[in-house]
């Protein structure tokens, strides 16, 4: 590396910051490498905005809490604001909806305004399904099980008229209590006998307004059906987890132990993992190519099989049609419980028509062939780049092994994220509950019922305008996104400081025992503003993406509007790319921030210059590190596909989250080591005056060496 012009360099107040002369890095012999010790607060304005934003968020929740009884947030409450199971309703702990189908028909309206149907507290949920006026033989049952608003006492002569005025419930479903609310059991447990009965006239109404068929029930209540399926599944899972929690805990401990071992050995096995994976991909693509061509030739020779790809849409429509799915369930003569559903048989029946398509095998052969060609070109053209990327990954493993305390640090951001998610959920429920219209006495402001008040002072009052409620929900969502990304940034900057300390320390034995605590302290005292700035950029893009996704879901109601759907897809694609780019810039800016203590924009500029001048190295390292870390996360799992799927699935999910926490630390180490290496090469040249700080093993792989041993 040639000598750089060192005349009149621009000095920085930070001894650890790079010095520039006409856009070039220069070296000062007295400067201090590694994380800068003398720092100043960065992006203070952004920190002030962030703190102010948090204050507004908290004030918003307090404001809504002042307009709602806190018990109404925790416990079910009726249309008049009375809390079921409390006070004079202590003997009525359950909430019943007169027509719960209205809740499911407009989920968005239910969230904003509450369910648009009368709701009363009851002693127990209905245990029978019927409709008032359906049959004369049911009159005695109707009176016995009738649920009406408070102060209404029906008889044989006026029950039907009361249902027309929504003073009494007209439809009754056998229900279960879910969170103190009566949810119809029929919506998630339709057996063979009920299916044919309900399909056309499950709940018949002899009145002039016709009948309520199962088609209407199922169509208007898809959301509740899915909810109940999820609740049923959750109930089974909880039961299985309680029975097997000891084994799950033992498995997670073993997973954590394996993750520790994996990280420890990564410095020796990383290169073998890369090349074995590349060879495996070669073999896999070759096998797919050979098998696809072989199947295609067999189908061509067998003229009796003339299935065409053009017919596949109709075939699939038949396979996955709800009637076919139900017929499949009916053949088993059992209730369609999700825990014992035979997915393998249904999957086999669904795929069988595709396997007879010649065009399908042509497509697979072409894809496999292109994949094989691209893989071959990448391997031969980027072989040296892959070797260098592996060296950085191995060095990152050494860094993690030298600072094992970093592996426990993810517990801090995880705990903070759980707390923020809990607060945001509480805020969501508070806003939704406080926005619902209630009956209030105009004189006293207390809850009342228009049926029992003798004067006209009991009126229905909506505390907030709909637009304000929408705005509050949007603000709560944006605050959640921003704070979550802020916590992630705090995690990233802290770990970057630790691994930068490791890289820029010649004798690794000199690394402080409190290196993690020191880095965390620097981050808290000096750089919260920069983290708030970086996280704000990502939060804005993510929030816009969520809004576009919401609009796109609304537009799906109008499938013929092709032009708007096209532009919507383009916008979503562009924003996805923009978000990925900002995340990439952010993480590298965080590394430079942790090392040099500059503002966010300056750190992003320095990081971008370093990476842009080494674009191919950065690309290969990014892909390889992501691939290796993904394999490492899977290595902590015990795949036993024959094991009962509930507890096993929970274990696999938890173990993946656990290993992800460990290997996210590893990911930060890889990025920090790589960026530190680039800066080391840019500033130093291996001479006695400017020796490299990289380790000997890293210098050997990159073909660099110091003129004098240090």
From TrEMBL:
Residue numbers spanned by region Disordered: 1-23
Pfam family, one: Choline_transpo
Presence of keyword Transmembrane helix: yes
Sequence intervals crossing the membrane: 46-65, 245-265, 272-293, 360-386, 407-431, 477-504, 524-548, 648-666
Domain of life of the organism encoding this protein: Eukaryota
GO CC annotations, alphabetized: plasma membrane
Membrane topology per record: Multi-pass membrane protein
InterPro entries in UniProt: Choline_transptr-like
Subcellular location: Cell membrane; Membrane
An MF annotation (GO) of this entry: transmembrane transporter activity
Keyword list, A-Z: Glycoprotein, Membrane, Transmembrane, Transmembrane helix
Biased composition (Polar residues): 1-16
Main location: membrane
Role played: Choline transporter.
Family under the similarity heading: Belongs to the CTL (choline transporter-like) family.
Listed PANTHER family: CHOLINE TRANSPORTER-LIKE (SLC FAMILY 44), CHOLINE TRANSPORTER-LIKE 2
Name of the protein described by the UniProt record: Choline transporter-like protein
Protein species of origin: Dermatophagoides farinae (American house dust mite)
